Task: inverse folding
């Protein structure tokens, strides 16, 4: 019986082997989304725990890594939803950004805030596509959706970001 | 449907926003710092996989129904 079959039968040794094989990939995926190593570790443990609990739903001829990544993505999205900043980003508009480091820092903070306030699904798509520059098909697979849907989410994220930054008088150059 | 002009704007917006985000959001280290196996094992021990109460309620209800209406066993067996 191969490793994945033994895992679906609940053998803890097989699961331990899979954890050691995949924990790095799962962590790397989650930390790219949540951008916080401590939170990413907790969510990785949660993901691996859920994987073990859902082992009966996994087909031994399936792609374990892709399945793990999808569970991890859902957990990361839930985390972003629960931890969205409540404070409104739309502060008073400012003029044209200056080359002052303090102003630049403030601009960057405003961009970060606007980004964190995006709906979680849009934020994840934009993070993976625009910041991490991962291939759209890889993102689509992890989100359990189509490449077209990912592109649409990125498009909407950019539109919302631009609108909010304009309202706040921040003009990214 | 997205037209040519919108396509151009999308690419332009995309570039600007991507640059702004990359400047504002620092890169993260994707290397896992420690082995998480013991944490997973601890979580499995702390939260043993248990059957939720409504599943037990359903089992009890089914058993009661089979006692009161024994012919339901045939219907149940047919649908399995």
Result:
């Amino acid at each position: 019986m191969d490793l994945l079959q033994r895992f679906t039968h609940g053998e803890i040794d097989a699961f331990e082997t899979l954890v050691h094989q995949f924990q790095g990939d799962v962590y790397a995926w989650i930390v790219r989304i949540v951008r916080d190593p401590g939170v990413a570790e907790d969510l990785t443990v949660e993901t691996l725990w859920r994987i073990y609990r859902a082992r009966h739903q996994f087909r031994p001829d399936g792609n374990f890594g892709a399945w793990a990544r999808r569970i991890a993505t859902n957990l990361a999205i839930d985390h972003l939803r629960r931890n969205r900043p409540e404070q409104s980003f739309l502060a008073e508009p400012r003029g044209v950004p200056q080359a002052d480091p303090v102003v630049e820092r403030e601009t960057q903070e405003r961009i970060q805030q606007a980004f964190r306030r995006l709906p979680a699904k849009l934020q994840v798509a934009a993070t993976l596509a625009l910041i991490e520059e991962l291939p759209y098909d890889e993102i689509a697979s992890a989100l359990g959706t189509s490449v077209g849907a990912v592109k649409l989410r990125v498009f909407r994220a950019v539109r919302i970001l631009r609108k909010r930054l304009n309202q706040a008088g921040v003009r990214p150059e | 449907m997205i037209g040519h002009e919108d396509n151009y704007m999308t690419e332009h917006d995309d570039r600007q926003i991507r640059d702004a985000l990359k400047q504002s959001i620092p890169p993260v280290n994707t290397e896992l710092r420690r082995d998480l196996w013991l944490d997973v094992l601890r979580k499995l021990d702390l939260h043993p996989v248990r059957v939720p109460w409504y599943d037990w309620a359903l089992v009890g209800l089914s058993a009661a129904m089979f006692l009161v209406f024994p012919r339901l066993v045939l219907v149940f067996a047919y649908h399995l």
